[in-house]
């Protein structure tokens, strides 16, 4: 423990996780932040303030693993204030308990992948695409042609494998039978009161209730420390610029295209 940590009063950390996992929530930055919190002895408990539709499958997995390690050291409570769906729910399920606002939407356990097909449009305007490749499946996710039956089978296998990993992770985190999680893994979202009945969350309330719960579990004083990942000026400017462009075009960059093995745990 360094001198600064020894001088800091004990507190409960509140960590905001708002937006898409991949862009708004950067998995590597978030994982590093959770590691620093785990090593900070002045932080006795953690509340994850989640409002996320999900995002990158690998990114969700990376953050979930960091939460699991953090939970082994100190109490971690998830608060879902708006949307805790897909990858966002996956992260929440790794905590000691989930509390959601009564009007929040929860769940969307499943995997989805998008891939635009532009071959027909290109053909209509006289554009041809020539591909040189080293193996028959190297371009199986190409948007420039229809998939073969073999490629569709392999693509579905990727989705099914990621889905199984998701279900197993929720079953472990929530201490639910895997068969029960599979019943709930329809891809749909539930309003918090229904999610409570289904066993997907533990309580309903607001973030103050979540902080009270964390203090109760840890025995820490109810002193809150808001912690955010550091962002450079370039990140802030580019993030705002991207949001403006996306809004003007009506495009959601992260959820609009297939990302190969980086499929989306996306609740939308």
Short recap of the structure:
This protein has 268 residues and is of the alpha/beta class.
Task: List strands and helices in order, with pairings.
Elements: H1 3-7, E1 11-18, H2 27-39, E2 43-52, E3 54-56, H3 57-71, E4 76-85, H4 87-93, E5 97-100, E6 105-107, H5 119-124, H6 149-174, H7 178-184, E7 189-191, H8 192-198, E8 203-204, H9 207-218, E9 224-227, H10 233-249, H11 253-256, E10 264-266
Parallel strand pairs: 1-2, 1-9, 2-4, 4-5, 4-6, 5-8
Antiparallel strand pairs: 3-10, 6-7
Helix pairs in contact: 2-3, 3-4, 6-7
Please provide a written account of the structure.
The structure is a single chain. The chain is of the alpha/beta class and 268 residues long. The protein has one domain: Alpha-Beta Complex (2-enoyl-CoA Hydratase, Chain A, domain 1), CATH 3.90.226.10. Helices cover 44% and strands 19% of the residues. The strands form two sheets. Strands 1, 2, 4, 5, 6, 7, 8 and 9 form an eight-stranded mixed β-sheet that branches. A two-stranded antiparallel ribbon has the order 3-10. Strand 4, helix 4 and strand 5 form a beta-alpha-beta unit. Helix 2 runs parallel beside helix 3, helix 3 packs parallel to helix 4 and helix 6 crosses helix 7. The protein is elongated.
Give the C-alpha Rg. 21 Å
Look at the structure and give the mean pLDDT: 84
Number of helices: 11
If classified by CATH, what would the architecture be? Answer: Alpha-Beta Complex
Order of helices and strands: HEHEEHEHEEHHHEHEHEHHE
What's the CATH class, please? Alpha Beta
Distance between the termini: 42 Å
**Tell me, what's the shape?**
elongated
The CATH topology:
2-enoyl-CoA Hydratase, Chain A, domain 1
Overall SS class = alpha/beta
Number of domains: 1
User: What is the CATH superfamily label?
Assistant: 2-enoyl-CoA Hydratase, Chain A, domain 1
Count all strands and give the number.
10
Q: Helix share of residues?
A: 40-55%
Strand content: 15-25%
Low-pLDDT segments, ≥5 res: 241-263
Largest sheet: 8 strands, mixed
């Amino acid at each position: 423990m360094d001198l600064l940590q020894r001088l800091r009063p004990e507190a409960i950390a509140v960590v905001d996780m708002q937006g898409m996992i991949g862009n708004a929530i950067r998995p590597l930055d978030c994982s590093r932040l959770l590691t620093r919190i785990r090593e900070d002895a002045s932080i006795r408990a953690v509340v994850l303030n989640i409002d996320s539709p999900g995002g990158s499958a690998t990114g969700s997995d990376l953050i979930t693993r960091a939460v699991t390690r953090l939970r082994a050291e100190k109490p971690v409570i998830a608060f879902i204030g708006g949307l805790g769906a897909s990858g966002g729910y996956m992260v929440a399920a790794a905590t000691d308990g989930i509390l959601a606002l009564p009007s929040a939407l929860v769940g969307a356990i499943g995997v989805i992948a998008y891939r635009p097909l532009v071959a027909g449009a290109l053909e209509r305007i006289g554009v041809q695409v020539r591909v040189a490749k080293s193996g028959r499946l190297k371009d199986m996710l190409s948007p420039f042609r229809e998939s073969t039956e073999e490629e569709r089978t392999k693509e579905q296998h990727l989705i099914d494998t990621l889905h199984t990993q998701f279900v197993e992770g929720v079953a472990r985190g929530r201490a639910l039978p895997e068969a029960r999680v599979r019943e709930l893994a329809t891809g749909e979202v539930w309003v918090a009161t229904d999610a409570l009945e289904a066993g997907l969350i533990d309580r309903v309330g607001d973030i103050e209730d979540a902080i009270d719960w964390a203090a109760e579990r840890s025995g820490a004083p109810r002193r809150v420390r808001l912690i955010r990942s550091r962002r450079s000026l370039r990140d802030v400017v580019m993030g705002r610029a991207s949001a403006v462009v996306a809004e003007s075009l009506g495009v959601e960059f992260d959820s609009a295209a297939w990302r190969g093995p980086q499929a989306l745990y996306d609740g939308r």
